Fold:
Amino acid sequence: MRDAIKRYVDAAQSLTDIPRERAERIARLLAGNGLIDSGQIRSVAMDLVERSRENRRRVTELVTSEIRRQISRLGLASADDVERLRQRVQALEANQRAARRATPKRAVAKRSSVKRSAPAKRSAPAKRTAPKGRTAPRRTVSAPRASRSRGRR
Structure:
């Protein structure tokens, strides 16, 4: 009988914390209806409070787990992921600044005042002749095709 009552209270109160006063009222009501002995009121009330806390913890874990699963499924970054990336970017920026300071600056070459001459002209490529005995293939022009009418109107 006591297990049935616990299951009923668990089902009814699974999503909320039961304050101790409320748990004691529930236990007194159960004692008044003859479901528990009057000496059990305090232990039943404490049991209800503890079960309420445990149920609340389980629901919180379930919701947290589901939220993390959905965020992962959507590919969203967590706050920890963003923080790790921010630190990585800062480290890369610091490395880049250090590398720039360590690299000596190159001297810029001065332009000479000597005027360059124009580039040399290229001669046209020599014409090739076909080897003896071979002639270029002839192209034939075909007559335009007459349009066919099928007689449909």
